Amino acid sequence: MEFANVSERRELSPELAVSTVIFALRDDAATGRKTLWLPLVRRTREPYRGRWALPGGPLGARQTLQDAAALNLRATTGLVPRYLEQLYAFGGLDRSPTRRVVSIVYWALVREEDAAGADAASGDPTSVLREDPNIAWYPAEDTAVQDGLAFDHAEIVRYALWRLRNKVAYGSIAYRFLGERFTLGQVREVYEAVLGRRLDPANFRRQLRGATDIEPTDEYLLGARHRPPRLYRYSGPSSGTPEPFSGTGNPSRAVDPPPPPAPEPAPEPAPEPSAAGDPSPALPPSPSPARGTPPSGGQTSPLPTVRNRKPA
Fold first, then answer.
1. Which of 30, 276, 35 is nearest to 139 (CA)?
2. pTM, rounded to two decimals
3. How far, in Å, are 32, 54, 145, 224 from residue 295 at the CA level?
4. How many CB atoms lie within 10 A of CB 270?
5. Which of 32, 93, 205, 239 is deepest in the core (most CB within 10 A)?
6. Mind listing the pLDDT tens digit for each residue in 285-307?
7. Which residues contact 67 (CB under 8 A, 6 or more apart)?
8. Is residue 286 a contact partner of residue 292, using CB atoms and an 8 Å limit?
């Protein structure tokens, strides 16, 4: 029905698409602290032409969901993540002003260290965006950025942030932002960026040293101002690491229901699905370069529980 009118298109069977929310840790030039960023793609056609949106695309007839997410992500942004996981399915009746679209949404994590020497064409993990003026990094928690997104992508980003905060409180997801070797201070930076609050360094180190899923190495981080900090490595289960995305990956499992609230201190409640409303204002100018990697540049809170503590 190529020439169907709006009413007729609304009666067609839904299209199936795959989108991805990608999180990366970047330096905030204003504070010098790590914050969460995500890449967005500016739409070049209707609906919502000129608005920013999450990268994604249609599901191919012979693609698994996970392969479609990875291949669409690489094609639109050039990013190749080390971690990719199914987030949720979004299928509101009015999420698209034309034909109904059901989106299977994935979320991915990329490391800063993957910016150098990576080759996206060969499948090497990389956090460098493809050179294109319609692709840019934005602060993930900026409400002006979220509210300016096309479709219901603001709702998707808020849900992904909520899911990340819950998962970091009980899982190993924080280590996915780090390299093979890391300091305890770098782990704390990840927790602070994800949870959005300062943590007491002494308490944090004490809890991490009692965890069973990280272990010290004989290496130290060179170039520090004071005594070089010891490097650690993650030794826990590797579940959640995706297979190489060659087009023959394992079929994705069914969509999970929303996770239960995290233990205290709990993050904000899961965002409720929003009804369709007036178009949101356009995004402000990107605070970072549209190409490559963005520039580098209180009160303490209770420490979240670190799982798998060693027995006394």
1. 35
2. 0.74
3. 11, 21, 18, 21
4. 16
5. 205
6. 444 444 444 333 333 334 444 44
7. 245, 247, 248, 249
8. no
